[in-house]
Amino acid sequence: MMNESHKDMGAPHLSKKILDLIEQKGLSPKPRWHFFVREWVVWGMVCVALLVGSLATTLTIYIGNASRFMERHILFSDLLFLFRLVPFLWLFLLCIAIFYTVYALRETRRGYRWSSSWLVAGAVGVSILIGSSAHALGIGEAIDRYLLTEMPLYKPLTNFHPKMWMDMEKGVVAGTVTEVEKETFMIKKLDGEILKIMVVSEKDMHALPELHEGMRVRVVGTTTIEGGENVFKSTAVEPFRGRGGSLFKRVRIPPLPEMKER
Amino acid sequence: MIRVSTEREAFGCIVDRYEEKLLRYLRRIMPGLGEEAFDVLQEIFIKAYVNAQGFDTTLSFSSWIYRIAHNEAVNWLRKKKARPETIELGDDDFQTFTQSMEIAHGTHERALTKDAVTRTLSHMPEKYYTVLVLHFLEGKSYEEISDILTMPSGTVATLLHRAKKQFSSIHEQHHDE
């Protein structure tokens, strides 16, 4: 231990002591590449976190979009149902990615100069920018489709329920168009049953000039019985793309018992 | 061999240049440290030597070595599970501090005595006390404090503002008692 009194008494300067200690312990400066590698590793972590955040954003936008039609037409009063449509898995992953991005940015050489709010805003902004571009390129849909077909655990995690489009009591039905007439068309529902759809609003027919056999649609309306058969009077018809839509052939949907009884 | 020797000589000059400054800083932020201050100081210079190649040239060297000193002080306090004891201000520090705080004798509502100032500072949270020391006693700018404490300049400004406010409030409180 050194002290001022030693120095006053002509003891060696601190610099001499330290240089002796350095020599004695054989210490040498860490090479420059050590610091470069560390910095690159941290930036690599930032990039990975941003990539995960962007993918989570893509999936959130995609799943949110896919559910929008239903929300718009029938579910304003059914908050619990709406709640089930929120892609919590991806939102949760997005939050984790943002947190991790901010943490990694803070670890960069000059990361401390930015306030947390700026770092969060930057991470969210980049995730949204890349995420929405990826969504426009259909990457979200491709990933979602892949996970739905290849990972059995994914479905329950993202509340994926194509069957929710088979709830005629709630006024929704989906299927593939088998026949088109002037004011009606027939669809083969997800459970394989054939249903006659009566177009109530002419607007829908105009909005769907492309309605043709083989087209996948989702329909909102009410069920009535006419001439002893079930007829679904539509108030809105929309091509069924995205989640559940183009997955008909890929995702096996077991028939619903209550649907069969009808 | 020659290069190593020159490097060490240069480093010796750095030690000579910063020894007093850093020792004074350590004593200010770790009052009651006593002789152990030299051990901490030694550790600071060894860390600076080992990490010399990692010095960010966009920073001032002073900020960089103060950062090492500050981190080492915090680590030392953590290791010893010690809290800074009662602050002892020298006459010069007292003058500098009160003048810098724009609360010099006579201009402040209540005259500041050295005892009152040290008592008030001793009651302040460490984060506030540290920015006050760096700004008013070490004469560091917001940017330099930002580089030393690795926090945004805006946060430094906020901390300083709150520290000044808290200083006045604690001082008033003690005076009323």
Alpha-carbon distance between the two ends of chain A: 92 Å
- Residue runs with pLDDT of under 50 for 5 or more positions of chain A: 1-11, 245-262
Q: State the total count of DSSP E strands of chain B.
A: 0
Name the quaternary structure. heterodimer
CATH architecture of the largest domain in chain B: Orthogonal Bundle
Query: How many strands, what sense, and barrel or not for the largest sheet of chain B?
Result: none
Total beta strands of chain A: 5
Strand content of chain A: 15-25%
Derived structural class of chain B? mainly alpha
Portion in helices of chain A: 40-55%
Q: What Rg of chain A, in angstroms, do the CA atoms define? A: 31 Å
Q: What is the total number of structural domains of chain B?
A: 2
Whole-angstrom Rg of chain B: 18 Å
Question: What pair of chains forms the biggest interface?
Answer: A-B, 27 and 32 residues
Please indicate the percent range of residues of chain B in DSSP E strands (runs of 2 or more): under 5%
Low-confidence stretches of chain B: none
Q: What is the helix/strand order of chain A?
A: HHHHHHHHEEEHEEH
Derived from helix and strand composition plus strand pairing, the structural class of chain A reads alpha+beta
CATH fold assignment of the largest domain in chain B:
Arc Repressor Mutant, subunit A
Helix fraction of chain B by DSSP (H/I, runs of at least 4):
over 70%
Estimate nothing, just give the exact number of structural domains of chain A. 2
